[in-house]
Amino acid sequence: MANDWRSFEPLLIPDIPNLQKIDVYEENGGYGALRKILNDTEKWSRENVTNEVKQANIRGRGGAGFNAGLKWSFMPKPDGGPRYLACNGDESEPGTFKDRKIFEYNPHLFIEGALIAAYAMTVDTIYVYIRGEYIDWVHMLQKAVDDAYEKGYLGKDILGKGVDIDMHLTYGAGAYICGEETSMLESLEGKRGYPRVKPPFPAQKGLWGRPTTINNIETLANVPLVINNGAEWYGNIGAEGHPGPVLYGISGHVENPGVYELPSGVPVMDLINEVAGGIRGGKNLKALIPGGSSTPVLRADQLEGVTMNADSLRDAGSMMGTAGMVVMDEDTDMVDVLWRIAHFYHHESCGQCTPCRDGTGWLEKILLKIKNGEGEVKDLDLLLDLTTQMEGRTICALADAAAWPVRHTINRFRDEFEARCKKSVHAVA
Amino acid sequence: MPEVFIDGKRYEFEGDHMALQYMLDQGLEVPFFCYHPSMSIPANCRQCMVKAGQYMKNDETGEYELDEEGERKIRWFPKLQTSCALKLSDGMVIQTQETSDEAERAQKDTLEFILANHPLDCPICDQAGECPLQIQTYKYGPEGSRFEVKKVHKPKRVELGPRVTLDAERCINCTRCVRFTEEISESHQLTIVSRGDKNYPITAPSETFDDPYSLNTVDICPVGALTSTDFRFKARVWEMNQTPSIDISNGKGCNVDLWTRDNEVLRITPRQNDHVNDYWMPDESRNAYKLFNENRVSRPFIKLDGDNQSNSSWNNAIETFAEVLEANDSSDILLIGSPHASVEENYTFNKFFNLLGAPNARFATHIIDGYGDDFLITDDQAPNTSGCRLLNLDESSSSELKTAVSQAKVVITLGDDLIDRDVLSVSDLEDPYVVSLATNHNEMTKASDLVIPITCVAEHAASYVNIDGRIQRSFPAKETKYSNRRLNLEMSEGRLDRFGTNFDNWVNEDNKVDCLPVWEFLNKLAERLGLEFEYRHSREIMTEISEKLDTFADVSFERMDEEKGIQLPIKQSKVEQK
């Protein structure tokens, strides 16, 4: 199917005018999946819905790529107390800008997906955490939520079927860490966004100590597709083991940057050359960050035959992440790029864990030295050493996200970094 | 019983344990900064990293799986674990820095990161000498620094509140202070601001850190970031003696350490006692140290003509006191004991004058209704109200005491400013001959005809019964004119005692107060009056009390030392105002 990407018709953001309007969404079969379930709760028991999603193998689109249905199944049995679904729309990693397309063009698909997830997990309250800078999209989603309440898809006794589910929007104040799932929970609780130590995991102890599942916006938007068409149909879209439509956010030195919906597993070079119109100005490709700035950069010569799915990218030495592809042409200064990425992670480290708090700053400062031509070759080895001191030593993955680009960019473009370092002068005895 | 294997040694355990605390309980050492046994576990310093795994068991047989060499197979966790947040489970295998190069390296790496932006100025830092970061860097840290770029400079000398000053650049973001205000004092006055290596704890804008327990954050700060405004840069910890004692500023009897240098108490810090105060104490109790140094009664005072008091020799004071006692009938003598004085002081005071025929001493409680909180500050402002009651002193209201004073010809009081706290007035004391056994000059000593200087809690070994009925004791922390650190077995010795000489400019005789323990003064008075009354030590007094009074049965200084105080067979949740 991935090979047929050219004939693929978008499913998440189809080309239907005014689809953000609830009437248009309904006219095009919108909320059909929800109706299907609520009209036949015997067939579509909560467990069956979860199993269908599990079987479809929707891999989380927030970066980690975990099976969404499996994640739902970690929720403990209801005990009568509150349970939550927290929807993560706090995308703010450089290169990642896909969820806003859903908020803008097809918000009800996400709402419907979230409602199905809430039903499957016996959740009665959904929180949507959106990046604060997305104020226009916040308004768009709020309008959609208001319309869904008015039409009886949200609130008490949904579609007269005795199911009560509420949805609340919360927007962040601009901290990247709040996109990390447990920091997001802290932020939703009104606290400073610090990651939580796991265990306990959110499914056991999440918002206000209650069972909570956190899903990415795009992940949830895939759910109605599975319910409408079945797990088998979904599993045949795109790459094996990583199926479904994907929103590719292509930015950087391409002629037509943007968000493109295509199946998973599209060849990287097709995405760059055909979908995004090729490298800007007819230049050559130098490097690609495949899935947001934290995913390891790949040299152009490493991209042959690589497709956009977890296995292929892992084999190539990188990750799928959020499919936020940053394309860099031959004129790109990798030292400048890496310093800018390091600057971002230094700025965004929450400061809770020592290796991240002090490591991210140290990385950036050394890179600034090198960028300014004041670095020495030994600084490169120090940088690599520091990344090993940071990786896997912190509560959340921000330290890893800061360390990987440094390690892989230096390893894959070492000559360029060495050339920027000043020549070492050694005294001759 | 479940078992764990730490550095190759097998331990059996029961119940739930976190690995770090369990290892500390076993006497093992793993470095840490953010962990505090009384607060939640944030696992943010990442210093207590260990390698951990699990012996693999066969699901069907429950037997351990063995490798080709017959050794148990271990499934190591993919990452190093922070031992503070690692829950022990049956068959867990832990390697600390003692046996794991990986753990040792991680701890060294973490310290290198902590020191990257931390000032490396231990010689001038206020925390030097008692800084866990300093100690752990020596034990587990890297040699030298590879940090050759500019450090982050955060705010310095920030007055967070009336008692706490922040040097933010030293902060390692352990969040102990923030968690203290959230979880212990519940004032929620501190939070962390800014991100990454720029962050530090502070109050909300325009708010002040005036939490009545604010100074506890200074105690638990693992670096010199939070300092006591009062004590900051006043002394070095290695110059001081640290003596265990009891807080005498309220009825809780918080366990404390008195920090002395050159016979002055320079600060008071809490001493852990899970039965009484955990690790904490109120700020106001720390101010009590001034009473031990300032405005002390040194040498007896006698009112000779009119209202003028003048210094007198001890011989003259004893002779004067004896003559007053001889000239008056014992029934005309009124004894007023004190909830501010120790069990031993009240006991010997009462016993001595009983021998002369005087009735039991009275005492007035010092309770301010509504003053206390639900934590460590009590309505009772005295440390030994329960002790006075258990010694059968007569609890008297202000009016009862006024009537008794008006009927007495001689009033003898023990370490209690009854005027300042409005139990008696100056005019009440105009007619009788008033003798005060006192530690500090106050309204009561001003109104007295004879003032006998006595030792304070910082100068004697004595016990106090707190509002919950727990008897705890103090040790002498300061020398008096007649005591010597090297001759008195109760006293600790510090660096200066061992290595200083009388010619060192920090040794100052002026700071030794010319006073006596109550029992020692009464010894001398007894000798003059020909009474059979002699103690050699306060320990003897407690031995006698335990023999005579059932409530104190089996109480001894030794037991109090071993058990951190003894719960007496009484329990008073609240001391009622009479």
Give an account of the 3D structure.
- The complex is a heterodimer of chains A (429) and B (578).
- Chain A has 429 residues and is α/β, with parallel strands linked by helices.
- Chain A folds into three domains: 5-236, Rossmann fold; 245-329, Roll (Ubiquitin-like (UB roll)), CATH 3.10.20; 334-420, NADH-ubiquinone oxidoreductase 51kDa subunit, iron-sulphur binding domain (de novo design (two linked rop proteins)), CATH 1.20.1440.230.
- Chain A is built from 17 helices and eleven strands.
- In chain A, the strands form three sheets. A five-stranded mixed β-sheet of chain A has the order 8-7-11-9-10, sandwiched between helices. A four-stranded parallel β-sheet of chain A has the order 3-2-1-4, with helices on both faces.
- Helix content of chain B is 24%, strand content 17%.
- Chain B has 16 helices and 25 strands.
- In chain B, a hairpin with a 4-residue loop joins strand 7 (158-159) and strand 8 (164-166).
- The model of chain B is unreliable at 573-578 (pLDDT under 50).
- Classes of the chains: A alpha/beta (429), B alpha+beta (578).
Please render the helix and strand layout as text.
The complex is a heterodimer of chains A (429) and B (578).
Chain A: H1 22-27, H2 32-39, H3 46-56, H4 68-73, E1 84-89, H5 99-105, H6 107-120, E2 125-130, H7 135-150, E3 166-171, H8 181-188, E4 212-216, H9 217-229, H10 231-235, E5 238-239, E6 242-243, E7 245-252, E8 258-263, H11 268-275, E9 285-289, E10 298-299, H12 310-316, E11 324-329, H13 334-348, H14 354-371, H15 377-390, H16 398-412, H17 414-420
Chain B: E1 3-6, E2 9-12, H1 19-25, E3 49-55, E4 74-76, E5 81-82, E6 92-95, H2 101-117, H3 132-140, E7 158-159, E8 164-166, H4 176-184, E9 191-193, E10 200-202, H5 215-220, E11 226-228, E12 241-246, E13 255-261, E14 264-270, H6 283-286, H7 289-293, E15 301-305, E16 308-311, H8 314-327, E17 333-336, H9 343-355, E18 362-363, H10 385-390, E19 394-395, H11 398-407, E20 410-414, E21 433-438, H12 443-446, E22 450-453, E23 462-465, E24 470-474, H13 495-499, H14 518-529, H15 538-548, H16 557-563, E25 566-567
Parallel strand pairs in B: 1-6, 17-20, 18-19, 20-21, 21-22
Antiparallel strand pairs in B: 1-2, 3-4, 3-5, 3-6, 7-8, 8-11, 9-10, 12-13, 13-14, 15-16, 15-22, 23-24, 24-25
Helix pairs in contact in B: 2-3, 8-14, 9-14, 9-15
